[in-house]
Write a structure and sequence with these properties.
The chain is mostly helical. Helices cover 53% and strands 3% of the residues. A three-stranded antiparallel β-sheet has the order 1-2-3, with helices on one face. A hairpin with a 2-residue loop joins strand 1 and strand 2. The radius of gyration is 26 Å and the shape is globular. The N and C termini lie far apart (106 Å).
C-alpha cells in the first residue's frame, strides 16, 4: 500500500516533468527578416553624429544651465557656426534609404539612438539661431529636415526606433509654427510640399508592430532555445519573465507569480512563439483602423510576463500625435497662404480646397476619421486635433502634444508648456 501511495504521489510529478521536457524541445520557427541596402543612411547618420561630437560648442538644447542662467545670442550663433558641416551631412543623409537593421538576436547591434536625439538637438539650436537673425526660411528648412529625420528613423524597425523617431520629431517641432507668419508665399509653398513628402515617407504603425513581432519573437526563440529544465534554468527564465522586486510581493502576488512561471515552464515553447506572432499580427491589423482608447487583441502570457503592458497602445498614440502635429501645421500654412492672398481667413477649411490643400486633413484621433476642427473668430483661427483622449476640449491644449487631457492645437504644437522666448539679436 505504501508503494501505491508513493506511486500515486509521484505520478503527477513525473507526468508534469515529461510534459515539460516535451514542450521545452525547441523546434525551428521561420521568422521573416530583411536586409539593409549597401547605400543605407545608417552609416551616414553615424558620421553625422561624429561631426556633432567634434563641435567646440554644444547645442543650446544640450547645455546644462545653472539656476537663473539665460542662453545668449552667442550660444546659438556658436552652435550654428560649428554645425555647418553637420547639418549639410544630415541633409545629404536624408536622401539615402532609411532601413533599420533586422534585430533577430539579443546579440544584434542596436543603432546608437542617443546619437540621433543629440543630432536633433543640434539641428534645433541651429534653427533657433536662424530665427533669431531673421532668416525664417532657413529655420523652417532645418526644422522640416528634423521632422523628416524623425519620421524616417523607424523604417523597417520596431517600437524602439519608432519611439526614438518620435523624440527626434518632438525636438524638431519646437517653435516650428512660430515661423509660419514670417514666410513669404514661395517659402510657404515649399514648406507645404516638404510636409507632403514627409507624410508619404512615414512608415505605417501597422508595419512597425509587425516588425516588433518578428523582433520580440526572435528574442523569445533565443531564450527558449537556451532554456534547460534545471533549477538554474528556471531561475534564469524567472529573471526574464518574473516581476522581481518591483512586482506584487504579497502572498497572493507571489502565488500569481509562481502560477505564471509554472505556465511558461510547462507550456509548449513553439506554441508560445506562435501565440506571440499571432498577437502582433492581430494588433497590426487592429491599428490599421481608426484609433481607440484600448486594444482588443489579447496579449499572450510571454509578452505580458515581460511587462509589455500598454506598450503597443502607447506607441500608437505617439505615432498618431506626430501625424496630428504635422497635419495641423500643414493646415496653418494653407491658412496663412489664403490670408496673404485674400486678406482674411476662410470661413471653413473646405474653402482651402483645392488651391491651398488637396483635401481637408483628417484627425488621426477621430473615431470616424473626420476632419481637423477649425474655428474662426474676429479673423483669428484655431485648428486642432481632439488628441488621444478623444474628447473635444474646445481647443484647450494638452501640457505636451499628444498627452491627456487636452487637444493638439495650432499655436501650441509643442504643448501648452512653452519654452522661454529666444534672446533678441542686437540691432545692426
Amino acid at each position: 500500500m505504501l508503494l501505491y501511495g508513493v506511486a500515486a504521489l509521484l505520478t503527477p510529478v513525473v507526468v508534469l516533468l515529461v510534459v515539460a521536457m516535451v514542450n521545452n524541445r525547441t523546434s525551428e520557427l521561420n521568422i521573416p527578416t530583411h536586409t539593409v541596402p549597401a547605400d543605407s543612411a545608417l552609416p551616414a547618420l553615424h558620421q553625422v553624429s561624429l561631426l556633432g561630437k567634434r563641435m567646440a560648442h554644444q547645442s543650446p538644447y544640450s547645455m546644462p544651465l545653472r539656476s537663473g542662467q539665460q542662453l545668449t545670442v552667442a550660444d546659438y550663433a556658436n552652435c550654428a557656426n560649428d554645425a555647418t558641416e553637420t547639418m549639410a551631412a544630415l541633409h545629404s543623409a536624408l536622401k539615402l534609404p532609411f532601413v533599420e537593421h533586422a534585430t533577430r538576436s539579443v546579440k544584434d547591434t542596436i543603432p546608437e539612438f542617443a546619437e540621433m536625439r543629440e543630432t536633433a538637438r543640434i539641428l534645433s539650436g541651429v534653427a533657433d539661431h536662424y530665427e533669431i537673425v531673421g532668416d525664417y526660411g532657413r529655420a523652417m528648412e532645418l526644422r522640416l529636415d528634423g521632422l523628416e529625420f524623425g519620421v524616417k528613423i523607424p523604417r523597417q524597425g520596431g517600437i524602439l526606433p519608432q519611439l526614438v523617431g518620435g523624440a527626434v520629431h518632438a525636438i524638431a517641432a519646437v517653435r516650428i509654427e512660430d515661423l509660419v507668419p514670417h514666410l513669404p508665399p514661395d517659402q510657404l509653398k515649399s514648406a507645404a510640399a516638404h510636409l507632403d513628402a514627409i507624410e508619404a515617407a512615414e512608415t505605417s504603425y501597422s508595419d512597425i508592430v509587425l516588425e516588433e513581432g518578428y523582433t520580440s519573437t526572435s528574442y523569445l526563440k533565443e531564450i527558449f532555445k537556451g532554456f534547460r529544465l534545471t533549477p538554474k534554468g528556471v531561475d534564469e527564465l524567472h529573471d526574464t519573465f518574473g516581476s522581481g522586486a518591483m512586482g506584487d510581493m504579497s502572498t497572493m502576488g507571489k502565488l500569481r507569480e509562481t502560477g505564471k512561471m509554472t505556465k511558461i515552464v510547462l507550456a509548449s515553447k513553439r506554441g508560445l512563439l506562435e501565440a506571440n506572432l499571432e498577437y502582433c499580427r492581430s494588433v497590426s491589423k487592429e491599428v490599421s483602423g481608426p484609433y481607440k482608447k484600448s486594444l482588443a487583441s489579447q496579449m499572450p502570457i510571454s509578452l505580458g510576463a515581460m511587462g509589455w503592458g500598454d506598450s503597443f497602445h502607447t506607441a500608437w498614440e505617439k505615432q498618431l500625435s506626430m501625424q496630428a502635429v504635422r497635419r495641423v501645421l500643414k493646415t496653418e500654412i494653407a491658412l496663412e497662404l489664403y490670408f496673404k492672398t485674400n486678406g482674411k481667413y476662410p470661413q471653413s477649411l473646405g474653402q482651402l480646397v483645392p488651391v491651398y490643400l488637396k483635401s481637408v486633413p483628417s484627425d488621426p484621433f477621430s473615431p470616424t476619421m473626420g476632419p481637423l476642427i477649425y474655428r474662426l473668430q474676429n479673423n483669428h483661427f484655431v485648428v486642432y486635433s481632439i488628441g488621444p483622449d478623444m474628447q473635444d476640449n474646445a481647443g484647450t491644449s494638452a501640457k505636451y502634444a499628444g498627452t491627456m487631457p487636452g487637444d493638439i492645437v495650432s499655436g501650441y504644437l509643442a504643448g501648452a508648456k512653452k519654452r522661454p522666448p529666444l534672446p533678441t539679436a542686437p540691432k545692426q
